[in-house]
Amino acid sequence: TGSWSSVHFKSYNFEADGKNTESGCLHPLLKVREQFRLLFVQLGFEEMPTDNYVESSFWNFDALFQPQQHPARDAHDTFFLSDPICAQINDRDYFERVKTVHEKGGYGSLGYQYQWEESEAKTTILRTHTTAVSSRVLHKLASDYLNECKSGTNVEFKPRKYFSIDRVFRNETLDATHLAEFHQIEGLVAGRGLSLADLKGVIGEFFRKLGMKKLRFKPAHNPYTEPSMEIFSYHDGLQKWVEVGNSGIFRPEMLRPMGLPADVRVIAWGLSLERPTMIMYGIKNIRDLFGHKVDISTIKSNPMCRLGLSES
């Protein structure tokens, strides 16, 4: 009809940018978790299997020389399970050695001098820390070493380095820095003659590579480490020092029943994944980072976190 000739068409701008294509975005926790994992691997650490969220009280507490009357084992701190209600312990000899060291001591210790209950050790829980994984791995390391020694050859204990990053569960009151479900980073080094100086050096280097140079150490108490230290990092957003982890040297009462040699020491540290992430991203409330209150738009708006994994 020719009517198009009287219609005004808007000029087409061939220089204009098109609409950005929608793409997936990694959650800050996933970004930082992968950076932690990469750092451990670069430092020569082996990753421990962490697929058992359900754990027995034996591996979570008793194997760590934590007494059965310890407050951390109460229902207000730990999630107990009714199904399964009882766990099976495969290594009965080790089970009895742990019982003995609790009741009567050994390896220079008097123990706790109480009646250790097998039924309590077999209760099932949601693991409260990934140190339960470390206890299993160290027990296997000791068992493999003892089996090699039985061959009659002169076996030298080989230093080992392990790490894990996974979820743990605690029956805690929720606030700006605490959740009932969170992630824990665990690292440990087993070798002859290790000391507290080695532990502080490893932790300092570890956080320095993450760009977190403001660290403080505070003496602490743990049933399974002696000496023990809490680790603090300065949070610029909160304008205060925030606890980011715990550390120490595993006690002989934990290691010797496993079968590790007397001069082998294990330095270990456990770090929250959420709190370092909060410091790196300037997040003030942990519930804005993990949980049902997270604003999805913050995931898209956050730039890639540069952790400064250089030697400088």
Describe the 3D structure:
The chain is α+β, with helices and mostly antiparallel strands and 312 residues long. The protein has a domain at 26-53 and 127-301: 2-Layer Sandwich (BirA Bifunctional Protein, domain 2). It contains 9 helices and 9 strands. A 7-stranded mixed beta sheet has the order 1-4-5-9-8-7-6, sandwiched between helices. It has a two-stranded antiparallel ribbon with strand order 2-3. A hairpin with a 2-residue loop joins β6 and β7 (225-235). The longest helix has 19 residues, at 131-149. The protein is elongated. The termini are far apart.
Which key features would you list for this structure?
protein biosynthesis, single chain, Phenylalanyl-tRNA_Synthase, 312 residues, phenylalanine--tRNA ligase, 9 strands, seven-stranded mixed β-sheet
Number of extended strands: 9
Order of helices and strands: HEEHHHEHEEHEEEHEHH
Determine the CATH superfamily of the domain at 26-53 and 127-301: Bira Bifunctional Protein, Domain 2
**Percent of residues in β-strands:** 15-25%
The overall pLDDT, averaged over residues, is: 87
CATH class of the domain at 26-53 and 127-301: Alpha Beta
Tally of alpha and pi helices: 9
CATH architectural label of the domain at 26-53 and 127-301: 2-Layer Sandwich
Strand line-up of the largest beta sheet = 1-4-5-9-8-7-6
Major pleated sheet: 7 strands, mixed
Coarse structural class = alpha+beta
The termini sit apart by: 74 Å
Helix content: 25-40%
Low-confidence stretches: none
Taken from the alpha-carbon principal axes, the silhouette is elongated
> Roughly how many Å is the radius of gyration?
25 Å
CATH topology of the domain at 26-53 and 127-301: BirA Bifunctional Protein, domain 2
